[in-house]
Amino acid sequence: MKKSYNLGIEGEKIASEYLKQMGYAILETRLRVLGGEIDIIAKDGKVFCFIEVKYRPKARLGEALESVDDNKRRTVRMAAKKYMEKNNIKAKMRFDIIEISRVGVWHLKGGDL
Q1: Is residue 37 classed as helix, strand or coil in its secondary structure?
Q2: Among 27, 61, 92, 109, which is disulfide-ready with 41 (CB 3.0 to 4.6 Å)?
Q3: What's the per-residue H, E or C state across 46-106?
Q4: What distances in angstroms separate CA 32 from CA 22, 76, 80, 81, 105, one per listed residue?
Q5: DSSP state of 109
Q6: DSSP 8-state secondary structure symbol assigned to residue 112
Q7: How far apart, in whole angstroms, are the C-alpha atoms of residue 32 and residue 49?
Q8: pLDDT tens across 41-66, in order?
Q9: Which of 78, 33, 35, 76 is nearest to 54 (CA)?
Q10: DSSP state for residue 14 in the 8-state scheme
Q11: Cα-based distances in Å from 11 to 39, 90, 92, 96, 105
C-alpha cells in the first residue's frame, strides 16, 4: 500500500475519534461514488456533515487547508448530494474540513452545501 493511503486511513481514524468526542455520530467513512469521495459522513445533531480530512503530521497548522480548492469542494458537494438522494434523506447538509497537523486537530465548520 502507498504511504499516502496509509496516512489517509490514520488521519481519518484520528478525525473520527475527535468527532465522536465532540458528540458527532459517525455514519460512514471513505465513501466512494462515481466522480468523488467523502472521507467522513457524520451527524452533528440534525445536520449531515460531509467532512474532508487532511492529515499532515509534519506540517504547520493551516498548510493542508490550501489543498482543499474549489474543485475538491465541488466533488464533495456532488458526492454528498448523491449520498442524500440514494438514502432518501432530506436534511440540512454542511461541508467541514478537519486538518490534523503536528500541533493537533483543527475543525473548520463550513457552510451549507
Answers
A1: strand
A2: 27
A3: CEEEEEEEEEECCCCCCCHHHHCCHHHHHHHHHHHHHHHHHCCCCCCEEEEEEEEECCEEE
A4: 25, 10, 10, 13, 24
A5: E
A6: E
A7: 16
A8: 999 999 999 999 998 877 666 666 77
A9: 76
A10: H
A11: 10, 29, 26, 15, 10
For the chain, list residues with pLDDT below 50: 113
Grid coordinates representing 15?
478525525
Q: What is the distance between the alpha carbons of residues 82 and 41, in angstroms, rounded to a whole number? A: 13
> Which amino acid, residue 15?
A
Non-local (6+) Cβ contacts of 78 within 8 A are 33, 35, 36
Buried (b) or exposed (e) across 74-89, using 16+ Cβ within 10 A?
Answer: ebbeebbebbbeeeee
Largest CA distance in the chain: 40
| Sequence letter at residue 55 | Y
